Amino acid sequence: GLVLGGLVFLTLTGLLVVTLYTAFRNTSELLEDKSRLLLDSLATATSLYLDAAQAQVDYIAGLIEHGELDPDDQRRLYDILAAGLAATQQVHGVLYIDARGWMMTASREPDGTIGRKLERWKDDPQIAEAMAAAVAREDSGAFWGPPVFAEGVGTVLNLRRPVRREGLLGLVVAGLTVAQLSEFVASLESESGQNAFILYDRDWVLAHTALIQDFEGLGPDRPLPKVTEVGDPILFGIWSEGWQQRRLEFGVGHQSSFGGDDYVFLYAPLDDYADMPWLIGSYFRADEIGSQVIRVFQTALIGVLGILLTMVAAFFLGRLLRTPITRLAEAATMVQALTLDRVTDLPRSYLRELDDAMRAFNAMVGGLRAFALYVPQDLLRHLLARGDPTAIASETRDITVMFTDIVGFTSRTERLSAA
Question: What is the pLDDT of residues 104-134, one digit of tens each?
Fold first, then answer.
């Protein structure tokens, strides 16, 4: 029983270990693929949303650089700015900042119309800073500036495209509000209940559901709130102490605890969108992705219970095999001692091989009992004790034979039965 149970244990345990290792490996790879797919979908959708603004400023700047649009034709300049603004719903306003000190703005009004504004910018430090940054770059590539706060509008992301033709002519700027970006990011939240967000320089919140409406406390000196200020208790603890040691084995992110529950943060960088790094990501409860791992553990538990039950069955199977074999051995020992009167018929077995052995043994015992009626048992014991096949070989001896007869034996037996 122990041998059979041990063999079953070794075989099934080895198989279970290989199966569980494969299951854990596959589960880990699937979770990694799932997390990367989630981040890729968030990053791709956000990039498409933002790239529309770049296509807009590139088109307007290209018209000016190729001489197809004269900035001094302010009516046509406004028409072009307004047309571009109408084509990109995510953009709140488009500006052309002329290097000579004036700028034209086309922006969305609260009633949905596109307003026009022409003003001087020389005394505006934010515009002067933007022009200085364009001069310092010495190329015509679009670049994102830091978020700025505009009264009546809120925090605005600005994409800047220098216009160059034998020097810097001006700057085309597309402005996107943080509120609109937050609303877009919130629309990307999946059915799993993830909470999408974009962080600016890791500690500042650039897009979040809390920023869809007016967020109190923001101003020119503080255009964005910190992660600890948006009122999201889970996001509050994203960079809590020791987060580096809680990195995920799959995907890009880490795990943190809040209120006794574990949460998974997944995030990825958004490159080429600002002077400081952007981080797009989401968070959700760990048990939402832990169900796959739990199923593997449940499978492991079922496998262990199966091994234990099989070992018990193998043990009792061994005992089932041992009992008839032990009876056969004990009966054979009695036969060896020629105590045939003590040998009882062995019971039949459900196992064919053992049943054949039992029937053959019972037949042998019956034959020995019949044989013992005619051969002295002392002679049989003597021969068996010798244990030598040559013990029954013929040999020459001087012996005495006495013949006797019983008077009237023949006629007497003729009248008796065979028994």
Answer: 999 988 888 899 999 999 888 888 888 888 8
Q: What are the contacts of 256-264 at 24+ separation with CB within 8 A?
A: 258/233, 258/234, 259/233, 261/285, 261/286, 262/286, 262/287, 263/234, 264/288, 264/289
Strands 93-98 and 195-200: unpaired
| Distance between start and end Cα atoms, the chain | 50
Measure the CA–CA gap between 252 and 250, rounded to whole angstroms. Answer: 7
* The pTM of the whole model exceeds 0.85: no
Q: Are 51 and 137 in contact (CB under 8 A)?
A: no
Task: Tell the burial category of 90 from Cβ atoms under 10 Å away from its Cβ (0-12, 13-18, 19+).
Answer: middle
With a cut of 50, which residues of the chain have pLDDT below it?
191-192
Return the sign of the alpha-carbon dihedral for residues 183, 188, 191, 197.
negative
- Residue 253 CB burial class (10 angstroms; 0-12, 13-18, ≥19): buried
* Strand extents, DSSP E, 1-98: 93-98
Residue 195 CB neighbour total at 10 angstroms: 18
Find the DSSP H helices in 227-351: 233-236, 287-336
